[in-house]
Amino acid sequence: MAVTGADPRLAAEQAGSPSRLRALVSDPAKAWNTFAIPLIVLIALAALYQYLGGVELTSREAARLNQPELILRARQHVVLSVQIAAWVIAIAVPLGIMLTRPWAKRLTPIFVGIANAGQAIPSIGLLTILAIAIGVGQRGAVIGVTAYCILPVLRNTLVGIQQVDDSIIEAGRGMGMTRQAVLWRIEMPLAVPIVLAGVRTALILAVGTITLGALVGAGTLGVIINSGVVGFSNPVLITGAVLTASVALLIDWVAGIAETVLRPKGL
Amino acid sequence: MDAMIRLDALTKRYPGQEELAVDNVDMEILPGEIVVLVGPSGCGKTTTLKMINRIIEPTSGRIILEGEDVTDVNPDRLRRRIGYVIQQVGLFPHQTIASNVATVPKLLGWGKERITARVDELLEMVSLEPRIYRDRYPKELSGGQRQRVGVARAMAADPPVMLMDEPFGAIDPITRDRLQNEFLRLQEEIQKTIVFVTHDIDEAIKMGDRIAIFGDNHRIQQFATPEAILSQPANEFVDDFTGTGASLKRLNLVRVRDVDLGEWPTAISSVRREDALAQLDEVDQAFLLLVDSNRRPVRWVSRRDLSRADWNQHVGLPVRAQVPLNATLSDALDEMLTSSVGVAIVVDDGGAYRGIVDIDTVMTAVNTLRAETRERVAVAAWHAPAGAVEEGGA
Ligand SMILES: Nc1ncnc2c1ncn2[C@@H]1O[C@H](COP(=O)(O)OP(=O)(O)O)[C@@H](O)[C@H]1O
Ligand SMILES: [Mg+2]
Question: In chain B, which residues have their Cβ closer than 8 Å to the Cβ of A3?
Fold first, then answer.
């Protein structure tokens, strides 16, 4: 068996199992916890449908509130959010791991400071600056929101690795596991729950913040909210808001399930 | 015999510290012996132990393992040859017991079947039924069971040497006692070379073939057998550290089978009353020990019991205080003090009467032991310079 080079995602996947997924739906109380959110979303969407059927739409409103347009915006929203989350993970997790290595420990305050700044700068300002610098469109929006969402994942990766009991690491090293083996087989799996909690937070931030992408030509459900605001149209505004909230809830729901399933057994 | 481990002027100064944490430790540890490092907190026991597998790198000095200088070899490879058990155990919480135990064999690239077989064998060795515990997670085990897994994990690849840092330190006294006994029994089979750290002198005396007492100056004050340390403390520090109960502690060192047992009048329980009385008259004791047809002790009967009108097979006192041949004199003393007759009956594996231990037996044993140890220490001291010359010449 190879000592080094294990993949952290692999470790996490091995930890999850179908039985755990089944456990989420097996007993009624758990099933309720598991399916409450989709149910609420379904009810909200049904109510929205009902409401829209009962109001007279102007032609401008009708141009916004047609199915292809709504699906397009919702899809942009989800795709961009997931893309951002992927970038955040790809940047913050390795960075966090690196910063827990003895040789890089001194750099930790610097990078945490940068990530802090990324979150502290008002995102609308960050997106505008990026739009000016690299032009309007999805690229700038993704970069800006990614910068905004780095902190929770970076911080949780650091904490997740640092909280692993020293005696566990000493036992591993004392038996002749290399530093890499200890990282991939012990530290990372044990950090998984905390890292995942950070990823979930980042996703929630991303889903909310990417609505601002509408202002820099990146589309998303923000477009609908925005035109509702600009056109003083309650039906458009309400539709945008309900859809954004629904997408946010559903993405968080999926992330929550992932958290349960990927959590290593035995913890 | 060639040393399994030799420490040669091993010294550690932690960065930024004035004082040495370990000051010039020289030690030869023989194959198959348990050497206990004992001393007050902060005297450098753990640091010394961890320099042997280079979890802590020595500032100066050499470590020789099985004749090979390992001071500068790859530490990861070195550690796979040395079992390591720590007080906090450090089991991997996200891995099953089997997976934990398999850690080193996996690092060494053993095949799957060999690993499975070895894991089961080890779990049985430490009294954990493999079928039940193999697939459990550490959090599903008690403290004592976790420590057993820790020991099994350290033995997995059958390393010749094991390092144990207060392995039973965080465990309740009753479980600790059981684990110590189990471990000593196991050691009789596996015959590992063991370096064992504790701050508890009683544990040191119980576990050690030899004991190294560290002083507050981070140096070894005395390195000798428990007997020698108790009867011939090298200096005031050792004398203080071993404590005032030293004579009593020494009783832990002697097995009942090794002393001259006392005799007691016995009779088969179907004996006739007149014969029994005659026997008592002859030996001038207050009680006669009745044994069954297999010579297993049953009851004590006194002259008064024998003269009762309703004398039958059931009068007298039931026998309670019995010890097996491999009990220590300390155990026997305990039993003796609770016995109504003031003696502990010694029985063999089949439960048959072998003799008794009374206060005279204990006193005689203590005196013999003291004399023997003095002699041995004197002989060792006589030979020491010669040994040193020999070594220097080699
Ligand atoms: N990592 C460390 N850094 C600095 N000093 C240490 C470190 N570890 C131990 N020491 C010091 O070294 C001495 C010996 O410690 P240790 O070997 O742990 O003692 P023991 O195990 O006998 O209690 C103590 O004075 C302790 O404070
Ligand atoms: Mg210690």
Answer: 107
Q: Which residues of B touch A6 (CB under 8 A)?
A: none
Residue ranges of domains in chain A? 29-262
Closest CA to A148 of A187, A188, A201, A215: A201
* Euclidean distance between CA atoms A191 and A179, whole angstroms: 16
Residue B161: which H helix or E strand, with range?
Answer: strand B161-165
| Coil, helix or strand at residue B34 | strand
CB–CB of A265 and B77 under 8 A?
no
A177 and B106: CB-CB below 8 Å? no
Residue A56 identity: E
Atom in ligand 1 nearest the alpha carbon of residue B50 = 17
Q: What is the ipTM, given to two decimal places?
A: 0.82
Q: By the 8 A CB rule, do A205 and A126 touch?
A: no
Q: Please report the pLDDT score of residue A3 as a whole number.
A: 38
Task: Give the whole-angstrom CA distance, residue B53 versus residue B82.
Answer: 7
Distance from C-alpha of B22 to C-alpha of B10, rounded to nearest angstrom = 7
A211-255 confidence digits (pLDDT tens): 999 999 998 999 999 999 999 999 999 999 999 999 999 999 999
The closest of A168, A244, A37 to B95, measured between CA atoms, is A168
Question: Cα-atom radius of gyration of chain A, to the nearest Å?
Answer: 22
Residues B149-166: tens digit of each pLDDT: 999 999 999 999 999 999
Distance CA B299, CA B314 (A): 8
How many contacts does A have with B, using Cβ atoms within 8 A? 75
Q: Which residue, A100, A4, A177, is CA-closest to B100?
A: A177
Q: Per DSSP, what are the bridge partners of residue B68?
A: B65
Ligand 1 center to residue B65 CA distance, Å? 24
Structure tokens at B308: 């009762």
State the burial class of residue A203 (Cβ atoms within 10 Å of its Cβ: 0-12, 13-18, 19+).
buried
Is B169's C-beta closer than 6 angstroms to any atom of ligand 1?
A: no
Does domain A29-262 fall into CATH 3.30.70.260?
Answer: no
| Ligand 1 neighbourhood includes B51 CB (under 6 angstroms) | no
Number of H helices and number of E strands within chain A? Answer: 13, 0
Cβ(A2)–Cβ(A254) below 8 Å: no
Counting other chains too, the contacts that B176-183 makes at CB distance below 8 Å and 24 or more residues apart are: B178/B144, B179/B144, B179/B147, B179/B148, B180/B206, B180/B207, B182/B126, B182/B127, B182/B148, B183/B151, B183/B207
Bin B243: left if φ > 0, else alpha if -120 < ψ < 50, else beta. left
